[in-house]
Specification:
binds pyridoxal-5'-phosphate; globular; alpha/beta
């Protein structure tokens, strides 16, 4: 799929019926899947001519905004070094290059110049170009396509980023507070504190709990915190960083989440040494919150929810991140709600914990020049908050799209005997941050290689369970039972591409490829 910017004159020629070739070109382009762009500086020209010729402006706009992405014509960076005659055109070319990287510009302008990575065609050349109307190259299917997501809301995102830059409130600007408020409403919790990453959300939470419960900065080594070994390393290493020791308890293979019955047995074995549980809603499937919360209440344990992969997921219609003492979210770019760098959020209904976390993100005090705790510089940047505010508007739609793709996968893969497909428990609303299958009796490397040969990406989340990592062997851990399920999962899981912007065709390519293995 190519990224193509079409010059305003060609569009006007096509829509006002002034040039047959332009009309043919635009009609043909509309039949393709190419991503089509115009530049914001073209809009006044388009408006002027539509007014002048009394064209059906409403209809034109409908076609326009459904098919074209608008890149903002910005900046003079690089302009002076270009050999140009028409500065308006030069600015459009440079803005297009900035936004898309490599692409194609179709223009009837005589005044052409070189911009690296950009091909320039006249309408005649475009109609004959194999780059545009040739046979499509074999589709390659990435795990996800962040650029494609960006193009789907390019105008809004560019606007909020530029607004933030212009307003100059780069640290704790109003967008941060607004995001916290919107996420509070979304989750149905009393407090949200934006922070610098999901990892920091976890460490801030564990430190705040130590300060509240133990009245000391950190946990003691003899304090055990139950968690799953089948997760990203941050879930476990933040326990070490908070001073405590992780107690690894096995998962159930049905959901890859902590097994409540094993958690119960582990609590029975280790007794009062166990202070709390960090549960992970892995791949976007919520943990069984009925059982885990009941266990935590019976045994007076704190609960931290690692929601890094579960924004929008729910258990019994209640959102993850609203059950435990604290919820920890990651806005890493590849997460189902991701920003354009690192970011995170802590959610809680506990006023005291909220206040401590808010102090810890700003060096450990209400007044950062006179602090009472050992704190961090762990704030979320204003620009990231502005991006997240924009993306938050689409999260339910994107999660629904993920669910739809998961359904297509599950239908298309159901006859493959060597695949165990993901489940969704009755009370669960799974957001399919990952669509992860378990290979039964097939070598994972071979399957990955066969898919790769067809341009299909796959990933393994996670190839090493935490109890096998040196960081825990060297710094302390307790292990309950044989952790067999976590080991089976680590050796056999495979995550397939899942991108909310995929159409059915992309998913079918993966399904066909797997069915042929
Ligand atoms: C389950 C889990 N926990 C914690 C994290 C850490 O989040 P971050 O990368 O934002 O620090 C991640 C993200 O990679 C994760 O998937």
């Amino acid at each position: 799929m190519a990224k193509i910017l079409i010059d305003v004159n060609i569009l006007l020629d096509a829509f006002l019926g002034r040039q047959e070739i332009s009309k043919r070109l635009v009609d043909k382009l509309f039949e393709t899947n190419h991503e089509l762009f115009i530049s914001s500086s073209m809009i006044p020209t388009i408006d002027y001519f539509l007014n002048k010729y009394g064209a059906d402006k409403k209809k034109f706009k409908e076609i326009f905004f459904s098919r074209f992405k608008i890149i903002s014509t910005t900046g003079y960076e690089g302009l002076l070094s270009l050999d140009y005659e028409d500065s308006g055109n030069a600015l459009i070319f440079l803005s297009f290059k900035r936004a898309v990287g490599d692409g194609i510009i179709i223009t009837s302008s005589e005044k052409k110049f070189e911009v690296e990575g950009i091909k320039i065609f006249t309408p005649e050349e475009a109609l004959k170009s194999p780059d545009i109307f040739g046979k499509d190259p074999p589709e390659s299917i990435p795990m996800l396509d962040l650029k494609k997501e960006y193009y789907s809301f390019i105008e809004e995102i560019d606007y909020v980023i530029l607004k933030c830059i212009a307003e100059g409130k780069y640290i704790l600007g109003p967008e941060v507070e607004e995001l916290e408020k919107k996420v509070m409403e979304y989750l149905g919790v009393r407090h949200c504190i934006a922070c610098s990453s999901g990892t920091d959300a976890l460490i801030l939470s564990l430190r705040a709990l130590a300060i509240k419960i133990k009245k000391q900065e950190r946990w003691d080594k003899g304090d055990l915190i139950i968690t799953t070994p089948f997760t990203f390393v941050a879930t476990g290493d933040t326990i070490l960083r908070s001073g405590a020791t992780p107690l690894f308890v096995d998962i159930e293979l049905e959901t890859y989440n902590l097994s409540p019955s094993l958690v119960k047995k582990a609590i029975r074995k280790y007794g009062k040494k166990v202070k709390g549980i960090i549960l992970v809603h892995l791949y976007g499937h919520p943990c069984d919150m009925d059982e885990l919360l009941a266990l935590s209440k019976e045994n007076d344990l704190f609960v931290v929810e690692d929601c890094a992969q579960s924004f929008g997921a729910a258990w019994n219609n209640k959102k993850t991140g609203s059950f435990g003492d604290l919820g920890c979210f990651s806005f890493f770019p590849s997460k189902n709600l991701g920003c354009f760098g690192d970011g995170g959020m802590v959610s809680t209904n506990d006023d005291e914990l909220a206040e401590i976390v808010r102090m810890l993100i700003k060096h450990g005090g209400k007044d950062k020049y006179n602090v009472e705790h050992i704190g961090y510089n762990a704030r979320l940047d204003t620009i990231q908050a502005a991006i997240l505010l924009t993306k938050l508007k689409y999260i339910d739609r994107f999660n629904l799209q993920r669910r739809k793709i998961a359904q297509i996968y599950s239908e298309g893969l159901k006859d493959i005997k060597w695949l165990k497909l993901p489940n969704e428990k009755e009370k669960a609303y799974h957001v399919y941050h990952q669509y992860t299958v378990l290979l039964m009796g097939k070598a994972r490397k071979e399957v990955q290689e066969k898919l790769k040969q067809q341009g299909i990406s796959t990933m393994v989340y996670y190839p090493y369970p935490l109890h096998k990592m040196m960081v825990f062997k060297n710094n302390g851990m307790e292990v309950f039972g044989d952790l067999k399920n976590s080991e089976v999962a680590s050796e056999n899981v495979l995550s397939l591409p899942i991108e909310p912007m995929f159409g059915e065709e992309e998913v079918k390519i993966v399904i066909d490829a797997l069915n042929k293995i």
